[in-house]
Structure formats: C-alpha cells, structure tokens
Write a structure and sequence with these properties.
Helix Hairpins, 77% helix, 0% strand
C-alpha cells in the first residue's frame, strides 16, 4: 500500500483523531494548572473536528454539512477560550496562582 492509497481511507484520520482525543483527556486529567487544562480541552475540540471532517469526507453525501459543524465547533472553542481566559485572569488576580491544588478554598 502506497501513501496515496492511505489517504483514500478513513482509518488513518480516525486513528489520529482517537490519539489526539486520548492525549487531550490525559492532559485534562494530568495537568495541574488551569492553562494546561484549557490547552487539553482544545485538543479534545480538535479531535472532534478531525473526526467530523473524516466522517464527512468518506461517509456523507453532502460535503458542506461536516464543514458547517466544524465551523460551529471552532466558534464554540473560541468562545470557550475567551471565557476561560477571563476566569483564569480573575482567579490569578485574587489568589496569585493558577494551580488547581491551591484553589481548593473557592466558595460560591
């Protein structure tokens, strides 16, 4: 099997998407800072976008449906980053740290 035939199958794309999803979940569970958790969450969004585009390319009759979903996810990710960074800045101003272990005394 040569490299051209490899790009004509959905399995490589789905395997890469699964690997990025696993990396994002591992990072979300392992990271101690809020910024690291935010980056891991973005990896999860990227895995979802890659998965949707692979399914769209190989299994969908209409090619624009998957692209619209990916654009929607990109907008959602941008909004999530904006809100999360504003929360992280507010937490840093109050506690002078963004480590999750030091933020256990938060109260609502």
């Amino acid at each position: 099997m040569n490299i051209i035939e490899l790009y004509q199958q959905p399995q490589p794309y789905l395997i890469v998407a699964a690997a990025v999803l696993a990396l994002g979940i591992f990072g979300l569970l392992r990271r101690r800072t809020l910024i690291g958790m935010l980056i891991a969450g973005e990896l999860i969004f990227s895995a979802a976008m890659l998965n949707i585009m692979a399914v769209n390319r190989f299994y969908s009759a209409d090619p624009t449906v998957g692209q619209v979903f990916v654009l929607f996810i990109m907008g959602l990710a941008a909004a999530e980053v904006a809100i999360a960074l504003s929360v992280i800045i507010a937490v840093y101003r109050n506690y002078r740290s963004i480590k999750t272990s030091e933020l256990s005394e938060l109260s609502g």
